[in-house]
Design brief:
This protein has 191 residues and is mainly α. The chain is built from eight helices and two strands; from the N terminus they run E-H-H-E-H-H-H-H-H-H.
Amino acid sequence: MQPLSGKASRSLLVLSEKTFEELFQRLYADLCRFAYKYVNEEESAEELVQELFITLWQNRESLQIQTSIDQYLYASVRNRCFNVVKRRAFLRKTHENLLRDHSIEQDSLNEGINFKELESAVSSSINELPDRCRTIFHLSRNEGLSYKEIARKLEISEKTVENQISIALKKLRENLIEFFCFLLLAIFSGK
């Protein structure tokens, strides 16, 4: 690693692969422990530090810092932790607001969506599928067979199975769009 000059307002950091590996070996565990103090999740702390080292390596030729590399890395980890904590707080607040503002009582859903009607529409849509498509869809969704198992059982290619499932799902979406639209309206209107 090239030493950083205190004279220049910004210094270019030059990292060789060997220096980077040494830096990683020396600081990784400590940075993970440091991050854990903020995010309280070992996996998140490790992921955050790994992403920092990836960014460091990717930007090694153009990275300009004004402090020691250790100070830079600790400050970067701290800032990334703050971002994670802010993002979590935002998501938690958003989730709470959605629950509060758009809570949907089961009764109001039942008023708008008759579940027997929905079940009937699904069955009708499945019955409208071409025979082969309906058979493949049934084997996949009702019997839980994989594409490979269906292909073997029906002596067809996996690609054919995949295509038939795609066709079935597309037709189901088209036939049941009114139910999905109503459900989305009910959810986001707060009724």
